[in-house]
Amino acid sequence: MPSIRRAGASAPPSAFRPTRLAMNRGICPKIPEAMVLRAGRKPGGKAEALAPRKNTFVSCLLLLAFAASAAAPKELRFSIAGDPKSFDPLHLEESNSQTLRDLTAGVLVKVNRVSGQLEPDLAETWEIKDGGRTIVFHLRAGLAFSDGTALTSADIVRTLNRALDPKEASPAGDTFRSADGPPEVHASGPRDVTIRYKSPKANLDRLFDQLGIPPVSFPPASPGKLQASAGPFFVSEYHPGDYVRLARNPHYWKRDSAGHALPYLDSIRVDIQQNHDIELARFLRGESQIINHLDPESFDRVAKEKPGAARNLGASLDNEFLWFNEAPAKTLPDWKRQWFTSAAFRQAISGAIHRDDLVRIVYRGHAHPAAGPISTANKFWFNAALKPRAGDPAAALKSLAAEGFALRDGVLRDRAGHPVEFSIVTNSGNRPRERMAQLIQDDLLKIGIRVNVVPLEMSSLLDRVYKSHDYDAAILGFENVEIDPVEEMNFWLCGSAQHPWWPAEKTPATPWEARIDELELKQASEGSRDLRKKYMDEMQRIVEEQEPIIYLVNPDYLCAVAPSVRGAQPSVAPPQLFWNIEWLRLE
Amino acid sequence: MIWIRRVAWAVLIPIVALGIFAPLIAPYSYDRQFRDDAGAAPSHRFPMGTDEIGRDRFSRLVYATRVSVLLAPAAAMASILLALAISGLLKYGRSAFTTVCLSLPWLFLFIILRAELPLNTGPAVSVALTFGLMGVAGWAWPARVFTASIGEMKQSGWLMQARAAGVSGWRIATIYAWPHLRSIALAQFRVLVPAYILSEASLGLLGLGVPDPLPSWGNLLRDLQHPEVVRSNPWVLAPLGLLMLVMLCLELLHSRCEVAL
Fold first, then answer.
1. Is A460 in contact with B54 (Cβ distance < 8 A)?
2. pLDDT-derived band at A151, boundaries 50, 70, 90
3. I want to staple B204 with a disulfide (CB 3.0 to 4.6 A). Which of A426, A450, A497, B209 is the partner?
4. Contact present, B76 and B192 (Cβ < 8 Å)
């Protein structure tokens, strides 16, 4: 019966499951003969009569498969590493909540992660006025949340005011504040919103890509009730520790060119799975269709076992780096602090590290040696004049000798005779970082420096870095969620609590730190993109010269997409695979 | 069933010899990185292949055997001596003290103590501290047995007679009591050695055992957390095999001793 097999094979595998179950339980319905004949027709040929008893079973199976195929909901399945801490788009403090926001929240404008262009979303049009001080959004007509309530300019005003309210302490609000205080926000009509700053605000329109608009009823009155949303999906079920189910928003505004309402998928099941090996095994068994982040080993395994599914988009926006503790701390002897605050010492350490080996061995070639604070993947903002340092222990020793260090009996000593020895902390369980530390340990041993690698639990590590300052050097990474460098200001400004080499440094200790502060503040209040680029180029050059942060590698963005998923256009910019979730289809 | 003991010794002695003569047996240093051969499959040059950063797995296994097999008995010895001293010194409320110590969550205290070590502690000091802490933490189990045995001894006629004859406490302990306690100490030692080998392996899995690059069975077993590594090179199971073999042999020797006693 070749024609029947062919017809069956064209249905999705999941379509067969209910059929088999039905047969096993003896509840297979009687199939009308005409339907059986249609199912048995060869392409372009005559209808083939099926032997009544023998073929009834197969026909029953086939028709149920068709029926199931037609009725089967198109549910995408993937995993996140833990429970979301919040469903409130204004209180996203970890990646799991952020992923759910990316799938559910409606935004005024959306950055196309492939072209980099800003596209209209809830706002049909917008205008920037007063030299970058004011932005006016004009909303689409007939917008509604997933529960059917209308979405108006009042919702935008309320959301932005809530984000800016100091009592809310919303991380989303930080993006919209400026040095001159919060902006003035008001609804200039049922579909028009005006936001006015006292001075020009950099990247003004693109900021709104990150502001999810929740309904007025948020937070929901009853604790068990899940909120509505204005994005392509809304949270329909949440089973803590197990899964979150997102259902299609029937009131979503977007349609495809043929006029079909988006999204194409009926639902998404987001499994909560901390173990990446289980996540990978499920993907390889076909039980899930997407892995948004793959480590190099898992990527190679997917590439081997499901060749079409593994995708490498080249260097990501993320970077991995090492830095020395330059903060005055009781636990840090003065002579050690002198090494760490010396640019020549930092440059020598950086020059002794073989970044090519980190890429080849730790990342199996799925990374690029880093040249500076901005990844080469960030084509506009990266300063193309910067080049990664090549590992050269002889040159490193030479520059250390010029600073008074001397290699005696295989041990490097400073002017006072102290052996150069320090520890590198990193977060335990992060294999690439632990391995990078081990390779760096070996690289530095070649110039007489003894390094102790200490993997620490993340919270203990952060306590040491940001509170007690009880550490020598650390290796961590930075996951960039934004292409625009304005988002990294809390990392670079001296007064910031997240300033790594000296958190909450009251005043810049050196002229180059003062210059970085100045450039950061200037680019944040400048409307001209080209002028901002000029400031950022200079800032990158200073970081390359002084190396307060020793950049190591930019890991590649690796993900997996099952061949059954159509419409995926992964990008290196977060949310890499989910930015066009409404266009994803399952076949 | 003397042959079982012989087999156990025949297996155990070469493993201990492997540890003792590690520098002579291992073809390379445990921390030498062959970066061009990272993750290499077993070959003539690297009999068990190399790890992910190019270190020879066989050399690391040999040195790990030295750390795990030689230091666990040292820690067990420390526990026994401490238990004997405490059992002998404490006259009143000893069982209560021992019970309190037995009920302490030693693993968590151990984790806290290990986390509080200065970051610049070198691998050798760190290893000594790891096994030293194990030795100190493990005194309460043998102490309970010693306390019970000493309690029984105090009621015995020969001890009363010795006291009545004016024999000194030190002489009673060394000449009269020790022969009675020796077999108990030996049995406790045999129980503690495998327990400490396993504890080090468990701490190594948590990243709290012997620090890299110094190898131990515990930190080599961390590779088993990643199934793809096991799939690509089954030799990563070798430390587990050695651990099981040593445990089995110690168990056989221990059970035969119990029968003999």
1. no
2. very high
3. B209
4. yes
Q: Which residues of A393-417 are buried (b: 16+ CB within 10 A; e: fewer)?
A: beebbebbeebebeeeeeebbbeee
Query: Residue A421 above 90 pLDDT?
Result: yes
Query: Taking CB atoms and an 8 Å cutoff, what residues of chain A touch B125?
Result: none
CA distance B25 to chain A (A): 23
Nearest to A101 by CA among A205, A239, A233: A233
Residue A450 pairs with which residues in a beta bridge?
A: A421
Sign for the pseudo-dihedral over CA of A283, A284, A289, A293: positive
pLDDT of residue A4: 34
For residues B192 and B112, what is the distance between their CA atoms, to the nearest angstrom?
A: 22
Closest-CA distance, B226 to chain A, in angstroms, reads 8
* Tens-digit pLDDT profile for residues B178-204: 888 888 888 888 888 878 888 887 777
Residues of A in contact with B38 (CB under 8 A): 360-361
Q: Give Cα B103 distance to the centre of its chain.
A: 21
Helices (H), ranges, A25-152: 33-39, 52-71, 95-104
The pLDDT-based confidence of A225 (bands split at 50, 70, 90) is: low
Answer whether A76's CB lies under 8 Å from A291's CB.
no
CA distance A251 to A225: 19
Residue matched to tokens 């088993």: B224
The yes/no answer to whether this complex scores an ipTM above 0.85 is no
Residues A573 and A114: their CA atoms lie apart, in Å, by 8
Residue A42 confidence (pLDDT) above 80: no
Set of chain B residues whose Cβ sits within 8 Å of the Cβ of A297: 226, 228-229
Backbone angles phi, psi at A499, to 5 degrees: -70, 110
CB-based burial label for B81 (10 Å; 0-12, 13-18, 19+): middle
What is the residue whose two structure tokens read 């970082």? A433
pLDDT at B80 over 80: yes
Backbone angles phi, psi at A367, to 5 degrees: -165, 175
| The model's pTM | 0.79
Quick: pLDDT tens for B84-103: 888 776 654 456 777 777 77
- Distance (Å, rounded) from C-alpha A477 to C-alpha A461? 13
Percentage of residues of chain B with pLDDT beyond 90: 22
Residue B27: count other Cβ atoms within 10 Å of its Cβ. Answer: 12
Report the interhelical angle of A343-352 vs A431-445 (nearest 10°). 100
